[in-house]
User: Fold this.
Amino acid sequence: MRFYDREKELGILHANCEQSLARGLMTVLIGRRRIGKTTLLTRSAEVEEHPMLYLYVAKENERVLTGKFQKNAEEALGMQVFGRMENFADFFEQLLRYGQHKHFTLVLDEFQNFLKVNPAIIGHIQDLWDRYHEKSKVNMVACGSIYSMMHRIFDHEDEPLYGRQDCRLNLQPFRISVLKQILHDHHHSYTPEDLLCLYTLTGGVPKYVAWLMDAKATTKAKMLRWVTQAGSPYLAEGRELVMSEFGKDYTNYMSILQLIASGLTAQSEIDSVIGKNTGAYLDNLENNYSYIHRKRPMFSKPGGRNSRWYLDDCFLRFWFRFIMSNQALVEVERNDLLLEIVERDYEQYSGLVLEQYFRQKWMEEERVTFVGNYWDRRGLNEIDMIALNDIDKTAVVAEVKRQRRKINPAELAVKVASLNKELSKYTITQIGLSMEDM
Assistant:
């Protein structure tokens, strides 16, 4: 699949590259695995047409890793260093000295792995950067996929690199308009069902989209067949993703994420299944990993107890709901039965995803300042989408159904009336949204 989108990010990287002509500049690029960080940086280097030294920080012995980096620098920059370097600090200092005479971009991919190689490296980078960056024309990009570790390195006040970054980019999945463009380019007569399936399976994560497009899985039927077939990288991706984050403690987190994906959104429900208080795990998943979010109904007071846990990542939610929960079928290679289960439950499952789709679409494309949904404590009044514009004082309240004929305007009006006080200062428009409106 060809390169799509990222104009805004490329513009920021270009501006940073220009600024680093005068002095060293440090950019932190964070994004989940498969989001396209390396592809973005490679594209940026091609556009800029200037030297880039790309170094992947593997979890290896420091001396071995530094030796590989030394060879990479000789090949990419022509930087000659006599003798074998024993540690990263010496190598990094040579790079900064080289940058006093030659301008180049230095990419340190999976930067958080330095904590595994040798935690002292982070302090060495801080010391050398402070000494050299004012006179060294190095455009340094620290790139990482594990949010919690990158957050620890750059955002904790007691860490050496706190306050050193000049720019931070959090790379997000493709916008809905980009997903439409990609699907059109590969299947110009795609249907709303095909678009919803692509969104359901990938959430706009570039690598997952590329997997499907490169496999010519461009219809709903082909997509579901491809992600469930034997040998599909989709089958193992969820486990690998979670294990890379949580290491030895991944089993408890896997269980909690699976429960949330299956529809257990209250901590009390999760605790009863796990058999212990999961508050610390839930807080860690939200605050340190950004895997889940505690959502409250619109207009509720901060700290209110009427909240639900949600797994917003479409890929992970689908993987835990269908792949993880049917691992036994995967293990014995009964992929035909796995596909049958997915096809059986897909319509009901994708109906809930459609609500998320429209909330995202409205936030990306309409003149609104906040988009959310609403439910009361008794669960009687649930509203799929409320989009507010606090500038114009307008509100769009929507019911979302896969099929338009199932939308009930009268029922929606009753629900809106229950929020008469909260919506009193807005001019309200009530609408129904279905797959025809995607």
